[in-house]
Amino acid sequence: MAATPEHGETTLLHDADGWAEEADKSARFSAGPAAPVRTLVDVFEATVRAHPDELALDDGTARLTYRALAAEVEDRRRALAAAGVGLGDRVGVRVPSGTNELYASILAVLAAGAAYVPVDAEDPDERAELVFGEAGVRAVVGGGLRIDVTGHAGEGAPAGRPGPEHDAWIIFTSGSTGRPKGVAVSHRSAAAFVDAEAALFLVDEPIGPGDRVMAGLSVAFDASCEEMWLAWRYGACLVPVPRSQVRSGADLGPWLVEQEITVVSTVPTLAALWDPETLAEVRLLIFGGEACPPELTQRLVTEGREVWNTYGPTEATVVACASLLTGAEPIRIGLPLNGWELAVVDESGEPVPMGGSGQLVIGGVGLARYLDPEKDAEKYAPLESLGWERAYRSGDLVRAEPEGLVFLGRGDEQIKLGGRRIELGEVDSALQGLPGVAGAAAAVRTARSGNQLLVGYLVTQEGWDRAAAVERLRAELPAALVPLLAPVAELPTRTSGKVDRNALPWPLPDLETTGPAEQLYGTEAWLAEQWSETLGVAVTSAADDFFAIGGSSLAAAQLTTRLRTRYPSAAVVDVYQQPTLRKLARRLERSVQDDGAVRTIPPVPFRVGLLQTVLLVPLFTIVGLRWTVALLALGNVLAWSGSAPWAPTASWWLVAAGAALLFSPPGRLAIA
Q1: Which residue, 26, 35, 374, 454, has fewest beta-carbon neighbours within 10 Å?
Q2: In which band, very low, low, confident or very high, does the pLDDT at 568 lie, cut at 50, 70 and 90?
Q3: Architecture, CATH, for domain 522-596
Q4: Tell me: the pLDDT tens digits for 238-250?
Q5: DSSP at 280
Q6: Where are the domains of the chain?
Q7: Would you identify the CATH topology of the domain 414-503?
Q8: Against a cut of 0.90, is the pTM above it?
Q9: Of 504, 473, 490, nearest to 178 (Cα)?
């Protein structure tokens, strides 16, 4: 295949000798060779040497150059070593998002030769304990430079420089059994990914000092690795986004302008909330994590900006392939990065012909591994038809085309929601463990607004309590996995006996909420309509809670955009602070009253006014003296010329002295 604009050395490989006709070629894709072997520590140190005085981190409260960041990392590395962290260990990281401290902590763990295991600081404690326990972390780094040593024994080696074979990070994804799956990525794979993207994006005008990269994704999400190293690979500045800004959705657009962001990696759902004008300075925009709508690309593709659509599971190191978007359809996930290999296979594991559809299988330098050996052997089994010793079965269905792959959907019960990969089985397990639940199944549904909702269908029995169930789920699951609860009489099944998720009811007109349906009026009625449009469920009570009936952070951002059509000062924080319908309606009404209120200015008290008048006397005296000096000078000129002998005059020495005192800067300073 001829070289493509995205990948100069991309080729289409065929099993047979020589080239066949295009239609007969098997759907196997390969790019150029992988980058030379190195570690993420090597990448960071090379940048520190090349750009020591350029900004590396800026969280809005402090700015760190690469030299200062390296010193900070070294201090933290020594603290980890003193706590017993050694080469090959695993260290949990649970530091508040949007801070320099979070990213310095991650670099310090890498520098100590350990793998970092991130958990979002806002995730439930139970989730953090589960992840850290499964990973067997030696210590946990928290906010305020806190290091908590756990009971897990480490490798026994002292802290040291990691090699390419050591793990760089371990990120947990949703698991079908109800327990998250730990995926370990080596330094070799991570550095190869960083260097492969360097050969892909902005080749003519590479990222460099002066560029500012947005860091808005949770570090528990593997795409955050792309954000970090888009900055640190090139000497650009990483700009963490305060978590409140990320939640605000549309308000993040003005933040991009204020912070002069030039590089953004995000999910399409979030980018769709931004005014295109707020991206005027962005010269590299990368989408990933979920399907990219054609309409969005048509809005955002413009001259002077590269817009890319990327694809890659955590198990293949963040990104496996990418496509440079032009605004034309279809939207592709593209061709592989240097060092990665892709194949499209049928149910028997044989490559399909070009133009055919099948499961995407990934090979090459980016392959990670599961902590669970049995799971690893299953998902990374050899692909004998192509002679690959390890190959990751993605479970994604794609169509193979010479110009790049087209994503068709999932081949199993794994879904993407808000950029986060979710195993419905994990949600099923949590639902089935609720008191008073006889059966449960989760499914993703789309509201009229286009907002995707995770819905938990429940067959309830004695002991069921909605409020208690919601509270328990929020304590057990990350916010993105807490579904809208919908009691049903029964769960439809297939002939195999498995739940038929496609047959589960939608929409949900009779959804149980916090009480019987009531008549709503005024602002409450209008607000209920906006909730229904956003969430796709009926709102029947002023006591309904936005998050309890399916709201999420992205849904809150979308709702805020709707609210501003009538209440311009509405903010996403209003939804979080007043999540019930009645309280939010009152908050919106007060915002209008506050905006339109007439300001009453009380009169100045008599004594204060008298004092102000007395204090003005010296000022008026000085102004009067300036006019007097000017008039005397004019009188002298007129009398000297003979045109006005009656004009008042004075000695020129006196006029000069007055001018020096009242008009010259030294004189005015002396008076002051």
Answers
A1: 374
A2: confident
A3: Orthogonal Bundle (1.10)
A4: 999 987 777 767 7
A5: T
A6: 40-399, 414-503, 522-596, 606-671
A7: GMP Synthetase; Chain A, domain 3 (3.30.300)
A8: no
A9: 473
